[in-house]
Write a structure and sequence with these properties.
Elements (H helix, E strand, L loop, with lengths): L6 E4 L9 H11 L3 H13 L18 H12 L11 H10 L3 E6 L5 H7 L6 E4 H4 L6 H10 L8 E5 L2 H10 L3 E5 L2 H7 L9 E3 L2 H7 L7
The chain binds magnesium ion (MG).
Length: 218
């Protein structure tokens, strides 16, 4: 019997993209040193809180941070090729060359879809949570992702992400092969995942391209 088509579905923030520039734009908009904002974000991650809780440290009335979004986006200028981790495009090409189909499905604003394509990201499926109207860690996010990947069986899809709470644990719970990429602040602070939760642990996408087969032990 032929092996089912295997997919590699990639997260965006801190998996394909280094988010230093966007968080730096938030610091600049708030008028605080970047180090101060980054440290506050670390405290939020360590406390298991949502990332927007970081704004509580800077005296913004509740939810007013949202109204600053367009100004921050203008400062940031949108996601650009320079924001991609240096191994991102080559690893995706290597995975495709090895016969895997590729998806990029992540918690991101809809505008990132076209920006990723403009930065050179090529995949069989690209979808952002704002477009899908469902976000991780909701199990429906993974159901919808499998639909987009041609109705693939969960077990034939590796979901690659940096976060334990939003990527590794819920993807495994949905039956996908969880791959933990150990980079970015969430991975450094939240890791390691509970025993047996990650099918594979890698330190970068170049390593992922070399070792992806290990996500499916025979
Ligand atoms: Mg991420």
């Amino acid at each position: 019997m032929a092996m089912p088509q295997r997919w590699v579905c990639l997260d965006v923030g801190e998996t394909l993209v280094d988010e230093t520039r966007i968080w730096g734009a938030w610091a600049d908009e708030l008028g605080v040193p970047r180090l101060t904002l980054f440290a506050a974000l670390g405290a939020v991650i360590a406390g298991g809180r949502q990332h927007h809780s970081v704004f509580d440290y800077f005296g913004l009335p509740k939810d007013t941070w949202r109204s600053l979004g367009p100004r921050v986006e203008a400062r940031h200028g949108g996601l650009q090729k320079q924001d991609l981790y240096l191994d991102a495009l080559a690893a995706m090409a290597a995975l495709r060359g090895a016969g895997y189909r590729l998806a990029v499905i992540a918690n991101q604003p809809a505008v990132r879809h076209a920006e990723l394509e403009a930065a050179g990201v090529r995949a069989d499926v690209i979808a952002m949570s704002e477009e899908l109207r469902v976000a991780k860690p909701d199990p429906a996010f993974f159901d919808r992702s499998l639909e987009l990947m041609g109705g693939s069986e969960a077990g034939s899809v590796a979901y690659v992400g940096d976060r334990i709470d939003n990527d590794v644990v819920p993807a495994a719970a949905a039956g996908l092969r969880s791959v933990w990429i150990r980079r970015g602040p969430w991975a450094r602070i939240q890791g390691p995942p509970p025993e047996g939760m990650a099918a594979l642990v890698v330190d970068g996408l170049d390593e992922l391209a070399e070792r992806i087969g290990e996500a499916w032990p025979d």
